[in-house]
Specification:
Strand content: under 5%
Helix content: 55-70%
InterPro entries: Lysozyme-like_dom_sf (IPR023346)
Largest sheet: none
Number of domains: 2
Number of helices: 7
Distance between the termini: 82 Å
Organism: Natronoglycomyces albus
Protein name: Lytic transglycosylase domain-containing protein
Structural class: mainly alpha
Length: 225
């Protein structure tokens, strides 16, 4: 019995070394770049999820291999080895599953948020703060500076471009979405992120009026848009 246990312990140790090596190597590949701070956080989360899933699958594969290897052992030896195996790997399996769940949650959260700032082109230099962000996103959506002039007036009237603005009936943010929670379709950070609010607002304007100047004309005529 001692040689058999020694042989399987050696195999288990070898498999463990290979798995740990693959996991460590994977993390070096993911995080080894010197410019990691420039990577999209959504891609980082996706890489973490993939690594966790691979670790999880590796643990299950070792379990299946182990069952095959001890299939021909006598009942007493098999029982002893199964107990030893279960004790050794149960915690790792649990940790892999927890890591996969956590990585999935992070990936989902990052998928449903926006950056808090954008690159502002020189043509928008006359604006600052949320207006500069709005000008940049307006151009990103294919509207020209003339359209942004209308958008600037519209949202100055609505909220003063304050992403925390809320009126007495519950309209919220820069575009004064009513209710504010409508903006969650653009991002879960709609309460605090001007980029999320501006993108949602432009989507609303594009869908309802076609362009900002048409929305501004409606607001002037009806005092709402």
């Amino acid at each position: 019995m001692i040689p058999l246990l020694t042989r399987f312990a050696a195999k288990g140790a070898a498999v463990l070394v290979l798995v740990l090596g693959s996991i460590i190597g994977g993390h070096v590949a993911v995080y080894g770049s010197t410019d990691i701070e420039e990577r999209d956080p959504r891609q980082i989360a996706a890489d973490d999820l993939r690594a966790a899933q691979e670790a999880h699958q590796g643990t299950r594969h070792r379990h299946q291999t182990y069952i095959i290897e001890v299939a021909d052992a006598d009942a007493e030896t098999k029982a002893s080895m199964v107990i030893e195996y279960a004790s050794e790997w149960a915690s790792e399996l649990s940790e892999a599953e927890e890591a996969a769940i956590e990585a999935a949650a992070v990936a989902e959260a990052n998928r449903n948020t926006n950056p808090t700032s954008v690159n502002v082109p020189g043509s928008c230099d006359e604006f600052s703060g949320n207006r500069a962000t709005g000008c940049a996103i307006n151009l990103e959506w294919g509207f020209d500076l003339e359209q942004f002039a209308c958008l600037e007036k519209l949202w100055t009237k609505e909220s003063g471009w304050n992403h925390l603005a809320e009126n007495s009936i519950g309209a919220y943010g820069i575009p004064q979405s009513l209710p504010g929670s409508k903006m969650e379709s653009e991002g879960s950070d709609w309460r605090t992120n001007a980029v999320t609010q501006i993108r949602w607002g432009l989507g609303y304007i594009q869908g309802r009026y076609g362009q900002p100047c048409a929305a501004w004309a409606h607001s002037q005529a009806n005092n709402w848009y």
